Amino acid sequence: MAAAMYALLVLFATLLVGASLAAPPNLQIVQAERQIDLTSHIVRVYLTLKVENIGENPASEVLLSFPPSQFDHLASVKAAVVVGKKRKKSYVSLEVNPTSLPSGPNGAQYYAISLLNSLLNGEATTLEIYYILTHSLEPFPLEISQSESQLVNYHDSAIILSPYHIKQQATLVKTPSNKVESFTTVEPTNKAGTELKYGPYEDRVPYSYSPVIIHFENNNPFAVVEELEREIEISHWGSIQVTEHYSLAHAGARHKGVFSRVEYQSRPTASGVSSFKHLVAELPPRVHSVYYRDEIGNISSSRLRTNSKKSELLIEPRYPLFGGWKTTFIIGYGVPLQDFLLESTAGARYLNFSFGCPLANTVVDKLTIKVVLPEGSKDPSVNVPFTVEQSLETKYSYLDVIGRTVVVLEKKNLVPEHNIPFQVHYKFNPAFMLAEPLMLVSAFFLFFITCIAYLHVDLSIRK
Questions:
Q1: 2.60.40.1730, 2.60.40.10, 3.30.70.330, 3.40.50.11740: which CATH number matches 2-217?
Q2: Which residues sit opposite 358 in a β-bridge?
Q3: What is the DSSP letter of 396?
Q4: Do domains 2-217 and 223-431 have the same CATH topology?
Q5: What are residue 92's DSSP bridge partners?
Q6: What tens digit of pLDDT does each residue of 365-397 get?
Q7: With DSSP H G I counted as helix, E B as strand and the rest as coil, what are the percentages for the chain, rounded to 5?
């Protein structure tokens, strides 16, 4: 009996602690403004929160809650605090991390925003939050013919899901066009052109949730790279070779019926409006030896434009991509070594390269980057501005003896905002650069010695 009572007390205490963590009572949101951008297949949300401490204890962090349907599709969450006023106003980035708190009401899951300075009683601060959702637009209907436009559904809440009391809030939704089939009404709701406004709403209790569905036309190409493997091979003899293997898909409404190329080319504005037949890859400046091929061979329909700041490669698959269609291809190029391989003050060398996918406005489900270091490199370390999975491999190439160290980085659910530089540091003894030339010289020397010995040795049986 005593054991049962003890177990009940422990369970009750755990529930109390979980409830206190999930619903902190010392903060309130004075004003919340949310802007949802639905103009592409990547959903971008801008959220402004004015947070005030109404409790006795200082607050060092602010919880940001998401429903389960959004939490699983978050690609990036960033936050900044507004410092100064009017003309002297500036933004300082804040640390944002997912928490291990138990799920709250309505299945809410949390990110924690660490403040620069703890908020005391009566103090307030303004937070600017920016988060990105992928795979959040659902095609409806699921299948369309070649002549039909693509319609999608977006699910969200008219009222911001928050663990804090909100005094005033409003949500503004922007669609690609004014062709909105239907939308859920939560008064007050107003629609004007491509903008749909929910609110303002007053005095909403914590974890308020009012689901809405917006059904609208979105013919933007739903370009999704299901898997991208990039190999960056460093050669200290003057070049860096990059090879990228793509598995690309159209994640929009699936195409039904028979594809007619005659109709597609004769009616380009009405036939296959949601398909895409080319993509733009933003490559580094001063690229050379660029190639683009698939399983059949080289594709000559691509075009390359270069200048001192960037290079743009326009690639065209062998056939236009409709919903549900896929293709695989390879892009390769070389860049000058001095542009991306630098030397630190401690004498170590490091590669400075862009992390994300070079294809514009594209979602990457899985990205694998393999940085092949020169033979003889040691003590590799990685500096990436977000969380990735890291591992080491060994690769053998021409004239290698001990093999080359390969730094492997993996990350899932990437968006164009992940196209920021990362660094791979390593130590290298310049003496290893002489290994391959000495092996070649030794091989030629032995070959000539063998030839000379063969010419001067008498192998006849009799004179």
A1: 2.60.40.1730
A2: none
A3: -
A4: yes
A5: 81
A6: 999 999 999 888 888 999 998 889 999 998 887
A7: 15, 50, 35
Q: Rounded to 10 degrees, what is the CA torsion of 330, 333, 337, 343?
A: -30
**Residue (of 304, 293, 299, 301) closest to 329 by Cα position:** 293
pTM of the model: 0.85
297 phi and psi, to 5 degrees? 155, -165
Q: What is the DSSP letter of 102?
A: P
Contact by Cβ (8 Å): 285, 310: yes
Omega within 30 of 0 (cis) for the link into 200: yes
Q: How far apart are the first and last CA of the chain?
A: 112
Digit-coded pLDDT (tens) for 4-62: 444 443 333 433 334 444 445 589 999 999 999 999 999 999 999 999 998 888 888 99
CATH architecture of the region 223-431: Sandwich (2.60)
Distance separating alpha carbons of residues 279 and 361, to the nearest angstrom: 9
Domain ranges for the chain, please list them.
Answer: 2-217, 223-431
How many CB atoms within 10 Å of residue 241? 15
